[in-house]
Specification:
The protein has 398 residues and is mainly alpha-helical. Helices cover 56% and strands 6% of the residues. The protein has 19 helices and five strands. It has a five-stranded parallel sheet, with helices on both faces. α2 crosses α4. It is globular.
Length: 398
């Protein structure tokens, strides 16, 4: 299956006249901020740092020599993030009681990409008394809205995901997106690895190493408080591999959280991740540097594991639960009920029935082909980079 369809060059040709703003990124950014404030009836007050930091990301994107399609995708993505920010801050100002909403014992699923984090997230988030934020809710974080507004927002997200599949049919194998399914909290968290999936940005990569993510996690909590306010309270289930970098901050903002860390052979992980990154790159730039993708993502993922392991000794006892990929992907009926015990959750017959349906679907990763050598990597190099982590992963599967 091709990574991108013939629609991509056609769209780049049709959108070429709209990409003139690339010549003046500062002016383009000012226009995005003004449009976002106007669209939400919000204000930039109180979001100055958020805007400045997102503006820096925007300028890093412009270093990529974006295609017209990539340019429009970037404008839309960042405008949407600003609109959501202004909406959340407006709601907090109008309803200060939202800030009192307790986010109790949330569950954070993390681990390297392609380690069954999505499967684990989906299983837990569908349990009675649990819930994950839906994709459309992450794009339009709001209090309860009328049915017409809800339907309009879901329809807009469905249109967007259908457009993505027209541009890259392969994406449905790599990371399927559905408007009414739980999705990663990177749609709220403004900064992190998810931005580097779009292209090689050395300035942004260096900036991430210095960035204080505490306010990002506080913002995530505010978003959850908005989504919870006026609705039945359930236990939140969230997910992104990026939490590995920030386990200490996560537990500062959510002190009673439980973290589920999924593990898998890093050699298998690396090829799959690089393939995802290459495919996404092709939607934004013309010729991805495959060796650079291999180098950067090997560095990023080994750093994620190193930071996660370094944080372990300082986390509250019982807050971190290790799970091997095979436990979830091969025999969840045995291992997931045990995971629930450790989470303080109750496994029921209804959960078993839901799990049966979930596992009837093929694991898409098995139909997604990828090769380390395409990205200038070898199994030995990956194993050396991860050090004794592979041995630790193997020990969990005994």
């Amino acid at each position: 299956m091709k990574r991108i369809s013939s629609t991509v060059p056609l769209m780049n040709m049709l959108l070429a006249p709209t990409a003139r703003g690339r010549k003046n990124p500062d002016q383009a950014w000012q226009r995005i901020v003004a449009q976002a404030a106007e669209n939400t009836g919000g204000t930039t007050e109180g979001s100055e740092a958020f805007i400045e930091e997102l503006g820096f990301l925007f300028r890093c994107f412009t270093d990529l020599k974006l295609t017209p399609l990539g340019w429009q995708g970037t404008l839309s993505e960042l405008r949407g993030r600003l609109e959501n920010r202004f909406r959340i801050q407006k709601l907090l100002a109008e309803h200060p009681e939202i800030a009192e909403e307790p986010i109790e014992a949330p569950i954070f699923v993390t681990g390297l990409p392609r380690t069954a984090t999505t499967l684990t997230h989906n299983i837990i988030a569908t349990s009675e008394g649990h819930r994950g934020p839906l994709l459309w809710e992450l794009h339009w974080t709001d209090l309860e809205v009328d049915e017409a507004t809800r339907a309009k927002r879901i329809k807009a997200d469905e249109k967007q995901t259908r457009a993505l599949l027209k541009l890259s049919p392969m994406y449905d194998l790599i990371h399927p997106l559905r408007a009414e399914k739980p999705e990663e909290c990177v749609y709220i968290l403004p900064h992190g690895l998810h931005q580097l999936v779009l292209g090689i940005m050395p300035r942004y990569r260096a900036w991430l190493d210095e960035h204080d993510f505490l306010d990002d996690y506080r913002y995530l909590k505010q978003a959850l408080q908005v989504l919870q306010h006026g609705r039945p309270r359930k236990r939140w289930v969230l997910k992104t591999p990026e939490h590995l970098f920030h386990l200490d901050l996560l537990l500062r903002v959510f002190p009673d959280a439980k973290v589920v860390w999924t593990h898998r052979d890093p050699v298998t992980v690396m090829g799959s991740v690089c393939s995802l990154v290459e495919t996404t790159n092709l939607l934004y730039i013309r010729r991805p540097d495959l060796d650079a993708i291999g180098d950067m993502w090997l560095d990023l993922l080994t750093s994620a594991v190193a930071k996660g392991r370094a944080a372990r000794p300082n986390l509250p006892p019982g807050s971190l639960i290790d799970v091997h990929y095979a436990s979830i992907a091969s025999d969840p009926w045995t291992h997931v009920p045990k995971l629930y015990d450790r989470l303080g959750a109750t496994w029921t017959a209804e959960d078993t029935a839901k799990l049966d349906k979930i596992m009837e679907r093929p694991i898409r990763d098995r139909r997604h082909e990828y090769f380390l050598s395409r990205y200038g990597l070898t199994p030995d190099r990956v194993e050396d980079a991860f050090g004794d982590y592979a041995q630790f992963v193997t020990s969990l599967n005994r």
